């Protein structure tokens, strides 16, 4: 409902009734936010334009419009498909693991006892650690010469496990860090969701002696679905753009083993100074995230309406 | 001293028209109750006067000066809200004092005076969440009254207080409101409250004033069948009739009995009508005779000051009769006869719902 | 939920213990490591009990780092200082810009407002490099590259959507009648905003501010691209420090501890609001 209109300086003056209503105020208030918006949209459009150009910082005289050239090049470029495959694999593996683990922990902590609350607060600490710093922590722990984790797997007879520096275990290692940082995100959202569910269905099921598995699959999961969908989409969107952990851990290596979208685009830009290619890569990533974020925002708005009591 | 004048005010929200050409004037010191079913546009009207949104068309004047387009704080209006709208982070005292732009000592003395009047001196230091609903409501009233506004708007202020307090306030409010010279517009959904508090009633139905008159006039001479049904508990009894005029008298068959309905205005019969008779105007006895409708008692509800009988007339119509508790009532399943005086009958046009007389029913107030 | 069965309780106990170990161990271990000399760190098998040393912290704070190759000047405290300045300034600016806008979006439903709110929201989920890379070229032309202001400005990408959407929710939860009542009592719009709306949305504003601070502090990629050494926050600084110091593992651990302590403490302080902040206001804890 709209309500106030201000900034009329002459309330008494003109006798003409109904005066045109001046509603500048909302616009004035949101002007700064609008500026920030513009500051985002201008570079975004610029990036879209760059992606249609041959544009290399070291060869400025070659710059020119080449249409979809950069995109077409990707189709036959194994490096692109490697990036695509690694990004999707990374995203799928992290989100599935974090969802399963997060849901499991949330179920364990469901009853709001003091102990459970203390545990859930402690589990938030990894999430509040900067991901780049978290990668450094794990780098220290997986150091081949003194890392505690290298020592521990050694106890189990696995010697010479090289973690992130070995192509065969690099993905596993960064996924491990991602899971360490972000599982608490899923956990805390699902825990809040679980605790907000109405009690009657569960009490009724308990009275009727319904088996626990039935309660879980037929009552808990469906009721929790909006939270699960929102949390997973949230993670999906962040995970497919993962940069900090991978860059801090291996800069995309070893070789091109962890060359996800944003790391690849970063290197295209700063190492190979190929702005056009970098922009095209990011536009493709944007397209993917844009589709996902539209779905996400729909679900998110529904949850938000529920949280604010006007569902 | 300022008069509130609403001239042909209209407001639409999409397809809904909560105000459709509303006109009303409230004199200084007068209390006008805006009464209507929920969704009829009462709150929208108050909010346009208060300046929360502007009318699409028409004008609103306070003391002869248009306030349309003026910000709320410059309209000289005080308002009490249905949900109290107290400032949760301020004490009752600061809530009340927020309406004053004055120096410290004057604020203190005026807050003291108004809170004494409203009997809330002992809770002035409390935060709103520590107050009972009654105290909240009095605090909100004090806040609206303290600035001596030209126009006082009360949006169903007794809606959220308990029954006992509502009854007390109904007696207390008219005195309180008449202390000043404010033009008071009082919105309510409770017809008893409206009749108890107001000098005049404005009945709002579907964004239009269906009738503006004194409470007694509206009860005795409702302009339409819709208004007749809004006032009275139990509600008015209705029956479909086709009156005929004979020797200057109207009469009609009601459930097999010929009932006299008073003097005919003209020679012509009014056609198909709704007959309305208030439950307290019915007499019930076991004696048959002329002008008595045969009926059967279905149920009796004793209600202390009266007894309400649910009757089924011979043609199946169900009517209610409200009788004095000491009157002979009979028992459920008894066969009885129902009578009413010809001047108790109201006739409404079937097609338009408007009352078509007789006009003589005005009782001395 | 099986509340009672013994097997169930044992299972839950074991599971919770494993979970706690997995999530807490790295933090505890790095914390312990920061109080060890390099010799202690390199000892195999590792020991839980050791004689703590503050040498790592002393070296970081004094900025003098002794390595095998000789003395090294390090500016980690400078990074820490930068993080404080950048994150605080970014949050202040975001509150200044975001709170009035959030109020406008909550109270006046207007198309431009919704467009701004949703644009900022959707760019919260767009690849940051997409905006950052062209922006870095613009910044070079505008002379904003490697300035505090330039970095604070792009931090709005993180802080503003958060503040806008959380605070908007708080404003929406305040009954407009309360503000109407204040205005009818003779106060201007501005007074109603500062004395009624802002105090009542206070907890939400504080929570959104704290969370934005954490997220700005934890950000890595923005400063990586837009800041050179003397403007870098700890996230970028720590990585550079690892490269520079080589094998001074104790100092690296100490630098990590110093980098994460402020946000972890803030998170503990604001934990009541974390759920709401993490979900951008969609889930209340």
TrEMBL record, chain C:
BP term (GO), one: transmembrane transport
Bilayer topology term: Multi-pass membrane protein
Key word ATP-binding present: no
Alphabetical keyword list: Cell membrane, Membrane, Transmembrane, Transmembrane helix, Transport
Keyword Cell membrane assigned: yes
PANTHER family found in the cross-reference section: INNER MEMBRANE ABC TRANSPORTER PERMEASE PROTEIN YCJP, MALTOSE TRANSPORT SYSTEM PERMEASE-RELATED
Protein's name in the database: Carbohydrate ABC transporter membrane protein 2 (CUT1 family)
GO cellular component: plasma membrane
Subcellular location: Cell membrane
Spans through the membrane: 12-32, 84-106, 118-139, 151-171, 192-214, 249-270
Entry's family note: Belongs to the binding-protein-dependent transport system permease family.
Main localisation: membrane
